[in-house]
Amino acid sequence: KFSFNKNLKISLKNYLIKFNKLQLKRFRISISKKF
User: Fold this and answer.
1) Residue 23 and residue 30: Cα distance in Å, rounded?
2) Exposure pattern of 1-20 as b/e (b: 16+ CB <10 Å)?
3) Which of 1, 20, 23 lies closest to 12 in space, CA to CA?
């Protein structure tokens, strides 16, 4: 149970990091399109 929770947290963290990177890319692209 403990290890499962730990793995879940780690995977969630990784997912959030990937998601944030994607958002950053889209944000930069939209900015470059505006200018």
Assistant:
1) 10
2) eeeeeeeeeeeeeeeeeeee
3) 20
* Count of residues making up the chain: 35
3-class secondary structure, 35: coil
Enter the tokens of residue 13: 């963290």
The tens digit of pLDDT for each residue in 1-33 reads 678 889 999 999 999 999 999 999 999 988 888
Tokens 């889209």 correspond to: 26
The Cα 2–Cα 5 span in angstroms is 5
